[in-house]
Design brief:
Length: 223
């Protein structure tokens, strides 16, 4: 039998020696191999936990509409010392293009506040909350659960991107029927204070809370 191996063409040998092209896909473009995170819808990306990209949302809108949520039962809560965490596949977070490190003083750090003027109406979020509860299979008291921005508005999170919102169950020591009161909110406030005081960058705060809100402060040496 004749050997199935053939001598490599001179052009291919030269290519390999120069390490300037890829043989993974003949005729296709060479891969950069940089491992850079994929850009979000706006063409920009911020690095999240384990180097994954934090999507870029649409930002504040004059008129918000009810956003489609993940399929019912497709999202699963995680727990860290009893505290609920989001499903990264369903809720990876989303940042607002309107807030950047360069304009903090005129957005989230400005006197008089920023978030009240960009929040969707309760009519919109109320409908989304019910749909998202089905996504996560949440069956607890809706009045005790918060429809939470994973990256809070005071940290430049997108106001109504479904990737940045999830039904957050009450803390394990929460008394039923007493309304929304969770331990994530103080973490968000401390991160906001640190960002506005130039102790941490906006991107670092966003990465920390997307990775795990229960360890965000300790990760940034703010606890």
């Amino acid at each position: 039998m004749h050997s199935a191996h053939r001598a490599a063409p001179p052009v291919l040998l030269a290519c390999l020696l120069l390490a300037g092209c890829s043989t993974d896909s003949p005729g296709g473009p060479a891969s950069s191999g940089s491992g850079s995170p994929a850009a979000g819808p706006s063409g920009k990306a911020a690095s999240g936990s384990s180097g994954r990209s934090i999507p870029m949302g649409a930002g504040p809108q004059k008129h918000y509409t009810v956003q489609q949520q993940p399929a019912a039962g497709s999202c699963t809560y995680r727990y860290e010392k009893g505290e609920p965490l989001e499903d990264p596949k369903c809720t990876p977070g989303a940042i607002s293009p309107a807030v950047t490190q360069a304009n903090l003083k005129s957005t989230i750090c400005r006197k008089g506040g920023y978030t009240s003027g960009i929040r969707p109406s309760t009519y919109v979020t109320g409908k989304e909350k019910k749909l998202n509860a089905a996504s996560y299979g949440f069956t607890g008291r809706m009045g005790d659960a918060e429809y939470d921005h994973l990256i809070s508005l005071q940290l430049g999170g997108d106001p109504n991107d479904p990737r940045n919102l999830w039904v957050e169950p009450a803390d394990p020591d929460h008394k039923k029927g007493t309304g929304v009161n969770n331990k994530k909110d103080p973490v968000e406030t401390k991160l906001h204070t640190a960002v506005c005081a130039d102790k941490v960058t906006l991107a670092a705060a966003q990465r920390a809370i997307v990775t795990d809100w229960t360890t965000a402060l300790s990760t940034l040496n703010l606890s």
